[in-house]
Amino acid sequence: MESSTLIPVSPFSFFLPKPHNRTWIRRNYSTTIQCNKMYVPGFGEASPEAKAANHLHDFFTYIAVRIVNAQLESYNREAHAELTEFLDTHSLKDGDKFCADLMRESPRHKTLALRILEVRSAYCKNDFEWDNLKRLASKMVDDHNTRLMRDYVLETSHEES
Amino acid sequence: MESSTLIPVSPFSFFLPKPHNRTWIRRNYSTTIQCNKMYVPGFGEASPEAKAANHLHDFFTYIAVRIVNAQLESYNREAHAELTEFLDTHSLKDGDKFCADLMRESPRHKTLALRILEVRSAYCKNDFEWDNLKRLASKMVDDHNTRLMRDYVLETSHEES
């Protein structure tokens, strides 16, 4: 028989009416540890991390296009003009569609598209500061929470006085 | 006189017409090392990481609202109904504005808003899998780049044949 042990890993486990069903770790000494993360509804098969990665993917394409266009500006004015013109008529909201369309525009545009693919990969893996992103997001949530509560307190104390 | 040494840290440094002006490291033996990240134009004082953190901040608020509403559904139907009704009439696009408005709706709504602030902080710091985000985004860029190139090759080889 297996023994089952629940280990709360979050200090906010009192918020948990439902167990988080995403991650189960089975140790080889036959103990099942349940990961007590908060249940996030509405993501179906995907996860919030996959959803966020999807958004970042489009963001990296947007950044790669800006990087490549700025590079072209200084040493290939013709290609810079072509890419700028293409940008005026094609949305960057769906990064992959933008690249697919760019590839099919002309052989010269195809070369630009291939460079954008290469740059977005290099940017994601080498240049983007992932640790900084986590640090900034954590600081942001603290700062904004404090500001929201302070504004409310100031507003209501003003009303009372 | 100082001697200046440029050390390329990215394998894509040949893409670099302009030096990246964000990070300069000055060593105490009087050598200046320039960080050769690709120059990203158009972010002014902010950074791509700050922009991404800003988007994630709203995403965490959206998730916190879903978490809290799912929790309420199972043990406080009245509060669940109130939050659902509020969601129908207020956009979650700007998370901080949503929370500020919720706080000012009624004392009961204020309690819900405070819980949402607490949950978004806990989610960002404890539950969100940052390493997984990086892994998924890196895999996504590889997979999508391969798919875009494969689709193009298949399409053009079909035309040729």
UniProtKB/TrEMBL annotation, chains A, B:
Q: What is this protein called?
A: Chaperonin-like RbcX protein
Stored Pfam families: RbcX
Q: Which organism is it from?
A: Abeliophyllum distichum
Q: Name one GO biological process term.
A: carbon fixation
Any idea which UniProt keywords this protein has? Carbon dioxide fixation, Chaperone, Photosynthesis
The coiled-coil regions, if any, are none
Q: Which SUPFAM superfamilies match?
A: RbcX-like
